[in-house]
Design brief:
The protein is mainly alpha-helical. Helices cover about 70% and strands about 0% of the residues. The longest helix has about 40 residues.
Length: about 375
């Protein structure tokens, strides 16, 4: 009888763990769909925002433009890559790009705020989750307000970046690419649902006119293994796009937005319930103490925060998305596993880690 109950307990724990991993996987996929839906809804409007170069001379306008574009695209990586491309093409000066990059850093913190609202059913969990999400927002806003004032008055960032690239005469062919391990895991599923043509998106953002006649962001003219062009691309939303029912991008974006929000909410609720079921009060208390305590070596406790900053930076570099990392932190904070004091340094590290995308984009240009 004891063996039976022990086996039952092991199987139940294993099934909950598998379910937890599945919820986490589809939660990350839902963030990808959310990002794609905003990109589709933004469409050519993203490029129109950059057309008036006179407006970009105002640093406050540049800052708000960076916020708006990143909220529309739900990806600071994409918006910063577009801004780097604008500078590379000579469309915008570094002086005007700096406030836009700062705005992109603020815009990316919207996702985890949306995620925190899915825990509104439990007052205490929502309180912790929203606090964790708002830490990211407040840090970004306060930092940008301070740095933007310094940049307008003294231009330290423009001078530093100018000095860094002054003697840089290397070849453009660097062969550098993003170490996007997370996308390698999620793309087999997400690419079966929807594919966007990133070349069209970037072209519209840069306003170079190459794809000015393109009417949809959905990928078309896909090829099979023998390089033959397929009549309809092998993903679900292709049947609604130009190769199928030819529904306008706005409606496709709205459909994807609803699906992604429902998927995000369902997965998050499932994750929280699985966490609570997996972690009994004793285990939960043990994890809370281990994660939230300082280094147990006399005189080195002050290093704990810096270690978590490094941890946040490394994880963000690996997944190539600060939104995914901070949005995963939010339900953990809501469940009470991570305190605000630990979430804060990891958020700082995430801000550092996400800059690798724009650095790699500049190297490629």
């Amino acid at each position: 009888m004891k063996d039976y109950s022990r086996t039952k307990k092991i199987l139940l724990t294993a099934s909950r763990l598998i379910l937890m991993i599945a919820f986490l996987y589809f939660f990350i996929c839902s963030l990808s769909f959310l990002s794609d839906s905003f990109r589709i809804l933004g469409g050519k409007n993203v490029g129109n925002l950059f057309e008036n170069s006179e407006l970009l001379k105002n640093p406050v306008v540049g800052l708000m433009l960076g916020v708006l574009v990143t909220v529309l695209l739900q990806s600071s990586s994409t918006s910063t890559s577009i801004i780097v491309g604008l500078v590379s093409a000579g469309t915008a000066k570094v002086q005007y790009a700096i406030p836009m990059i700062m705005g992109a850093n603020i815009g990316t913190s919207v996702t985890n705020t949306i995620v925190s609202f899915t825990q509104v059913g439990n007052r205490e969990e929502f309180k912790r989750a929203f606090a964790c999400a708002t830490v990211h927002d407040m840090f970004n806003w306060l930092t940008v307000i301070l740095l933007l004032l310094l940049e307008v008055i003294f231009s330290p960032l423009e001078k530093i970046t100018g000095a860094i690239v002054e003697n840089n005469n290397r070849s453009n062919d660097t062969g550098v690419s993003n170490p996007d391990f997370l996308k390698a895991l999620t793309s087999p599923f997400t690419k079966k649902i929807i594919k966007l043509d990133k070349k069209i998106l970037k072209s519209w953002g840069l306003g170079d006119g190459k794809y000015v006649n393109a009417t949809s962001l959905l990928k078309t003219h896909c090829k099979d293994d023998d390089k033959n062009v397929l009549e309809v691309c092998p993903y679900l939303f292709a049947h609604l796009g130009p190769e199928g029912q030819n529904i306008a991008d706005v409606y496709i974006g709205l459909i994807l937005l609803v699906i992604s929000l429902c998927m995000l909410t369902g997965c998050l609720i499932g994750m929280v319930k699985c966490l609570n079921a997996l972690l009994g009060e004793e285990v939960k208390g043990f994890i809370e103490k281990v994660i939230n305590r300082d280094i147990p070596i006399k005189g080195l406790g002050w290093l704990t925060g810096y270690i978590f900053i490094v941890l946040g930076a490394v994880i963000t570099i690996l997944v190539q998305s600060s939104s995914v990392f901070t949005s995963t932190l939010t339900p953990l904070a809501g469940a009470g596993l991570i305190s605000l004091e630990r979430a804060y340094p990891m958020t700082l590290g995430s801000n550092i880690g996400t800059t690798t995308t724009s650095l790699l984009a500049s190297l490629a240009d």
